Amino acid sequence: MAIERPDEIRINAWDGEETPVLIFPATEDIHVRTPYTPLSLAPTFLEEPWNWRSPDVGWGLVLRDNDELSARDKAIGVDAPEPLRRLLMARDPAPILRYQPDKPPGYLFRYYPDGHGEPLSAAAPDRGVREGQIPQYLLIYGSPAEIPWAVQYGLNLATFVGRLDLTVEEGLDRYVDALISDWAGYYPADLTKPVIWSTDWGVPDITFLMARVIGAKLAAKFGADAETADRVWLTGPDATCEALVAELKSRRPGLICTTSHGMTGPLRDPEATISHLGSPVDHTRQCLALTSLSDWRAGGAIWYAHACCSAGSDSVTRYAGLIGPNQKGGALLRGVAATAGTRVAPLPRALLGGPSPLGAFVGHVEPTFDWTLRDPNTKQELTHTIVRCLYNALYTCDHLAPIGWALSDIFKEAGAFYGWWQVPADADDRATLDVYRQLAAVHRQSMVIIGDPTVVVCRRSP
Length: 462
Hints:
This protein is α/β, with parallel strands linked by helices. Helices cover about 30% and strands about 15% of the residues.
């Protein structure tokens, strides 16, 4: 079966002047990895993976290692901010795992109060909270400069992981207090009133496709459900920042889904690039201002933002080997990495530390492509997993649906694309198919949770 080689690939980034159009990578500009036998990279089956309180599942905290501390002090987290120590007590037994930057990747180190410690495989963990185990739910504390995005990407394939990058001054106390109390007293969000907001700049822009295969599908699912029929879908000319802010404040939705370009410029102004990094860009080409949401009471809501850099940026793009520096658009990807560096985007940080904190923010550290939203052979739309995770898993399950568990099928897809790098039957299509699968795998693996992975869209006790 011949693979269609696209002339152009469009990404969901906007630099204030244009959205890049990438010419399909020429084979001399890319590095195609050596083929290997498909592997299963999906997490193994757990009987009740949503029940993080079970000792066979568990929740734990990941901190950067500290050579100045004893093994006992590392085990009890004396270097963790006070709010996190309260969280550890509230969730006891809750192990602390340590990331060591000078050790081989793929391991987390666990220390014990009696003074001994051991490295544990993060790729094939023994799940739970007992000695020698790694919990299924992990909260990384620290910026991606301290504990790299690559660690979170790797953990995504085997555990349910989120990241918290807040100081006490930025609202860490509020977030932890809300998490411990399950948002009691923080004006909890209304799970029956989801808001879906989809920029659509028309064909052939990628926003047209995202609005169709993510926004419209979610709107249809929620609209057909009697409990969520009062959902709002803003698209086309209605998808403005002002309209989004108005709906968030008036409806207090339990779930927000936005699809758009993410702001990634202007690169000639580094301060502006960083301050607006990844913010949704609306119908009028304006990006969402953080100040417009400074008094919004998010109440533990979950926000899914399908946009370039919506979760943050890295100092080196993972697409560097697939998109050449001389290709149109390739310079933008490298320019964002060089200008913004390694960081969590300002929007999720502000919302998680807000007056009534957001529960979790789900976004991307890299751009996504129109090409990888469809299968190149069958033309099948490949966003059904996103829709299933955000609607079926979060809303229709009989049990609690923590956001970490709810998104696990997306990371299974990343594992599947990684596993299928092999020579196709038609050797002439090898470069095309290998590049497609690598782009699709990175696209999915670079989706991350900012916030605790045990957050649920429904406020109720397990």
